[in-house]
Amino acid sequence: MAKFQISRRKFLTASSLGLSGIALSGCDAFDSGLGIGGGLRSFLENANGLTYRAQRLLAGRNALAPEFTEADIRQPQRPNGVTAPDDDTYKGLLANNFADWRLEVTGLVEKPLSLTREQLQNMPSRTQITRHDCVEGWSCIAKWTGTPLSLVLDQAVVKPQARYVMFHCLDTIEQSLSGDIKYYGTIDLIDARHPQTILAYGLNGKPLPVENGAPLRVRVERQLGYKMPKYLYKIELVDSFASVGGGRGGYWEDNGYDWYGGI
Amino acid sequence: MDTVANNQSAAKADGKDTTLIYRQSRWTRLTHWIWAFSLFFMLLSGLQIFNARPQLYIGKQSGFEFNNTILQIGAENTANGPRGFTQIFGHRFDTTGVLGWSGPPGQETQRAFPSWATIPSYYDLGTARVVHFFFAWLLSATLLIWLVAGLINGHIRRDLAPRLSDLRKLPRDIVDHAKLKFHHTREYNTLQKMAYGGVLFVLLPLMIITGLAMSPSMNSVLPWLNEILGGRQTARTIHFTVMLLLVGFFVIHIVMILAAGPINELRSIITGWYRTDPPEKHDQPTERSV
């Protein structure tokens, strides 16, 4: 009975703490603990690491995202984020139909590359009809054609210490006091080498339009849309997020999204 | 029944012959409160996530060039200024102040669910996802622990599994509930079994399944899941609908506790001990004949 009393007291203490947490939930006190870098936020973010490990364990390296049929393509691919980059560099490249555009492959590679559109398009390609899932909650099915990223990585020969593929983009996503921020993001080498991870230059049987990321965008079919940068011009192999923007692995990650977007 | 072994007679000052019984095991009590806590945070963070795309669709994808929207919460400009609306199956309702358009007077903004119903209170999809997925793990793990404990200690078989006699008692049970006439016994009545069993074995598993069906990575593991459910956007719609059912359960649950005697009911889910009705009030023939 004594033991029971203690557990009850403990329980009442714990539940009153919980209730006060509930009472505060709508308040600034709770909100502020959830800011990036906050203790509460960092603790709760551990769950995403758990999700990453659990899903990697279950899905492995090669489990494919569902693919659909032509009949499922019922509308143009919904563009999101930046849809018409206002950057001079981009507009210059676009004016020349991307003839001067190159895809640079740099960082922790044995053979840095500089590929033209023709060189990329002459490599073996993959076409897939997949569902694009936005973090906001909507989905859209489209047919993507591109070069498997793994082929490009093989050509550049990735150094053993490389852990992530960083994508550098031409579009300014945010104008901050310290200058324009161009979109950037990272994926790990498991997703980079996934059979459906392609550098897409074609959409629904036509060249990739500007609003969907011309001349080249990434498709990472087992993750959400914010993990698939558009207006790509450079791929950099890195060993950590230290040199990646604010250090959380991507533009949206630096603004609070989880680095792993498989859920 | 093993309840006899747990019975502890208590002579009350008022002379009533009531009996305190140990009704809820520590597993039931602990998991109950973790669920309550988790569901609170999952609801409010979930409404924030919904606010990022306050529309529900049927099918594999969201219709932008075709219409498969069944619910939409939004705001529109009218002659009387901005108004919030909720549109369900094509029927539009003015929900200004709560859904679509809300906020302190003079500072209203366009948001599907109002600030007081979301975590965080301001618009922040990333943070809501962090909160939602943390409690998703906690809720799922607790459900698993409860299931194992409940199978081992007999709680599920003894207290929740429906029996033939439950079916027989159902009409009488409905009438009693409608009259707010409650029998305080160790056993759950038929409607209780249906409600608790429905939440634990239907709604919460369905919530987890439809949640997983929205994960693009899980779709590569279980590609058939969305085919069964009718597509990712249908899964999202089911997820939202189950949320409404869980909120409905919560409201009825609280009303029933208040009506049945909140002190006694709360004591049983906090300490485990529950005061049952005096035996003469039981309408079991064997007890009556004593």
TrEMBL record, chain A:
Superkingdom of the organism of origin: Bacteria
Gene3D superfamilies tied to this protein: Oxidoreductase, molybdopterin-binding domain (3.90.420.10)
Name of one Pfam family that matches: Oxidored_molyb
Organism: Mesorhizobium hawassense
Annotated InterPro entries: OxRdtase_Mopterin-bd_dom, OxRdtase_Mopterin-bd_sf
Domain Oxidoreductase molybdopterin-binding: 98-239
Protein's UniProt name: Molybdopterin oxidoreductase
TrEMBL record, chain B:
A Gene Ontology biological process term: respiratory electron transport chain
Domain Cytochrome b561 bacterial/Ni-hydrogenase: 124-272
Major location (coarse): membrane
Domain of life: Bacteria
Transmembrane segments: 30-50, 130-152, 194-218, 238-260
Lineage: Bacteria, Pseudomonadati, Pseudomonadota, Alphaproteobacteria, Hyphomicrobiales
Assigned keywords, A-Z: Cell membrane, Membrane, Transmembrane, Transmembrane helix
GO CC annotation: plasma membrane
Protein's organism: Mesorhizobium hawassense
Cellular compartment(s): Cell membrane
Protein name: Cytochrome b561 bacterial/Ni-hydrogenase domain-containing protein
SUPFAM superfamilies, A to Z: Transmembrane di-heme cytochromes
